[in-house]
Amino acid sequence: MNLKTAPRFRNVVLTGACGGLGQALARELIAQGSHIALLGLHRTALNELAALAPEKCGVYVLDVSNSQAMQEVAADWLAHVGLPDLVIANAGVAGGFDTAQADDLAVLRRMLEINLLGPATTFQPFLQALRQQPDAACALVGVASIAGWRGMPGNGAYCASKGGLIRYLQSLRAELRTSRIRVYTVSPGYLRTNLTAGNRFAMPGLMEPHAAAKAMLQAISQGREHIVLPRRIGWLSRLLACLPDALHDKLLSKQPRKPRVGEAGATAIPGLSQPPVKR
């Protein structure tokens, strides 16, 4: 007799569901039979995902840095579906940065709002509800980046936001260690998404979003609190980190810089006025 297995995660909240990794995660979770709240900025993309399992998906359009909006989404999902057993703070933006350019200070501010404040805003209302149920178990997952392990020339805003996220997740993990709530840090290397499409430098270990989504969910289900995608790129980064800073900086400085907002190949940053593209 062929019995259908229960999904590894029954009730999931996912931000950044419109993007490459987010869409791949959503499709994988939907295929597993999870109830899933799809959060993002583009209703059409979210509706297309929800159409795969209308009875199990909820669509919410919001900015993840908007605490009031996130609390309203959480209240609605909790009332209709209940406590999640998996919350993935996946929403993120990327772009080059130059401290000498006044306009780029707004890029840094907005990147911190989305990449660093966003996960805390996402977790807050669900963590509050979970604490009212001491026996409730849940995985809180923050999608950081290997770029958060070390600063890179021309990428200070992104590296700072992801490095801050790694430390925030580390703090939250320690706070919740004695509870049934687990905190996971995901550090992808290069994924084939819109965020990397304009990169003008080599991307070793480039990974397809669907492969990253499968590996990520499997690692979470296995209880691995620190997840690197793919694993070998983590070892490469650790090896480079053994070099003296001056040598490391010299090697990195020879690489092309990530496109800044307004340059060809740059990805748009939601909530930020986008200047004309510079050719």
Can you tell me the CATH class? Alpha Beta
Q: Largest beta sheet: what is the strand line-up?
A: 3-2-1-4-5-6-7
List SSEs in N-to-C order.
Answer: EHEHEHEHEHEHHEHH
- CATH homologous superfamily annotation: NAD(P)-binding Rossmann-like Domain
Report the helical percentage.
Answer: 40-55%
Strand content: 5-15%
Based on CA atoms alone, the radius of gyration comes out at: 19 Å
**How many beta-strand runs?**
7
Apparent shape: globular
Secondary-structure-derived class: alpha/beta
Q: Label the CATH architecture.
A: 3-Layer(aba) Sandwich
Domain count: 1
Q: How widely separated are the two ends?
A: 62 Å
* CATH fold type: Rossmann fold
Counting DSSP H or I runs of 4 or more residues, the number of helices is 9
Give a short account of the largest sheet. 7 strands, parallel
Mean pLDDT: 88
| Contiguous uncertain segments of 5+ residues | none
Give a structural overview.
- The chain is of the alpha/beta class and 279 residues long.
- It has one domain: NAD(P)-binding Rossmann-like Domain (Rossmann fold).
- 43% of the residues lie in helices and 13% in strands.
- The chain has a 7-stranded parallel beta sheet with strand order 3-2-1-4-5-6-7, sandwiched between helices.
- Helix 2 (43-50) links the parallel strand 2 and strand 3.
- Helix 3 packs parallel to helix 4 (103-131).
- The longest helix has 29 residues, at 103-131.
- The N and C termini lie far apart (62 Å).
- 40% of the residues are buried.
- The mean pLDDT is 88.
